Amino acid sequence: MLIPARMSEAEEQRWVTVMLEKLAAQESRRRLGDAELAERAERLSAQYFEGRARPATVRWVTNQNTRWGSCTPAEGSIRLSHRLRDMPEYVVDYVLLHELAHLLVPGHGPRFWQLLEAYPRTERARGYLEGVVAAGRLPHQPESSAE
């Protein structure tokens, strides 16, 4: 954040507080809750699977650190990792569609992937997720300073 040099320390603190509150408000509006996530899943099922994939529950979870999502077809439950919350909508939609497809086809065979072909951003979303995974494996190096 850039702050004019003419601001006093008190003004700077007030400005930073105001801006952080605005950012937090924007972020909370952007993030979907479980109810909105379930509505989104319903819309995606209608759009791409003729409404055939009908989950009983769709929710965010914090205990999935190695998977983006999971589905238990027998229960009709879908769980998405909280790590997806800050990712682009098309990525969240892809993971939701992936799990919805499991309600129709349990495994990852040709029929499963054929269902996902209907979503035009499948490859892009998969590439994004692969990039996130690869970036997580990179060693963290301190930023160099220009001298």
UniProtKB/TrEMBL annotation:
<dbReference type="InterPro" id="IPR053136">
    <property type="entry name" value="UTP_pyrophosphatase-like"/>
</dbReference>
<dbReference type="Pfam" id="PF01863">
    <property type="entry name" value="YgjP-like"/>
</dbReference>
<dbReference type="InterPro" id="IPR002725">
    <property type="entry name" value="YgjP-like_metallopeptidase"/>
</dbReference>
<feature type="domain" description="YgjP-like metallopeptidase">
    <location>
        <begin position="31"/>
        <end position="129"/>
    </location>
</feature>
<protein>
    <recommendedName>
        <fullName>YgjP-like metallopeptidase domain-containing protein</fullName>
    </recommendedName>
</protein>
